[in-house]
Design goal:
Elements: H1 2-19, H2 45-49, E1 77-84, E2 90-100, E3 103-113, E4 117-120, E5 126-130, E6 132-145, E7 179-193, E8 196-211, E9 215-225, E10 228-230, E11 233-235, E12 240-250, E13 256-267, E14 273-282, E15 286-293, E16 302-309, E17 321-330, E18 336-345
Antiparallel strand pairs: 1-2, 1-18, 2-3, 3-6, 4-5, 6-7, 7-8, 8-9, 9-12, 10-11, 12-13, 13-14, 14-15, 15-16, 16-17, 17-18
Amino acid sequence: MGRYLFSARVLLLSAVFAVCPAGRAMAGESPGLTGANFLKIPVAAMPAALGETYTALIGPDSAIYNPGALGLLGYSAFSGSHNTYLAGITQEYAALSVRTRYGTAGLTFSSLSSGDITAYDADDQIIGETETSHRVIGLTFARSWPNFPSDIGMIDPMIIPPSWTRVKEVRDYRPKAYRFAAGVTVKAIMESLDDDSSSAWAADAGVMLVLPGRVQIGASALNIGTSQDFYSESAALPTSFRFGLAKDFHTVKDLMVFTLATDAVKYRDAGLYQSFGLEVDVLRFLQVRAGFRNAENSGARSSVGFGFNLDKFTESGFLKGIRVDYASLGYGELGSTNRIGLQAVW
């Protein structure tokens, strides 16, 4: 049993150290000593390419960075990603947001699987295989003020515009002094190792302010909840606080759109760090992205990616847009990780 626990725990810690390679068994709130550290691993392809600089940006992935921003999403959307992580670990992610006259409701799901692990008994004899699994399910509700139910399915011109070409922009008069939104997510966190399992409840909360000139300001608190118990140990969740700014810049006739964003992030077991993201949209077809984080224990400090807008394939259907996204994050000697994602709107 001892060898089995050793093998399984090494795999679990590999995911933690990939995010926090400097984590050590030290007293106090040192990196990696919180529970459910798989929550720190970037899951969505588009935010991952931007160095997770997404607190002040608006999209279906906002639910996992700033649920308040989801209240400014004028249309319904789906986002999904597959992550080929380190050491054979894989990760799946899906987010659904539905715009209603009362606000935006969201559902998110993420799972991380270790794959098969060889299990040993106390005499170092192979007794078969086992695996670990880590899942989180979240329910979000967000609302904007002022709220315009007649704008469902359209884009507010005050918001940094997405690349969709078939989602119409609101043309009639709307107050342009500000936009404010707030949202909350309630989620269940579940982890298992062979026959042992652990669960915890957590909540996220966030706010978003949009000023004239498409200046977006966001703030959120994530993973606030109960402690996680595993075996005889108990650990706090990886609570984090985020603050972000975002602004876009357009060339003549919007041939190119530059979106700049920056975040300040503080995890309970790490120091404050900044992240920076840049997206260059070309002809509302190709989006090139790059991100950088100056966190000492962040694992992947730089990231790149791109997206292709495939709206032309939705001209006769229910959908108003489809985009394929890709992100690559390097973890030094541990190797690189690749995420492929899909977004659809209606």
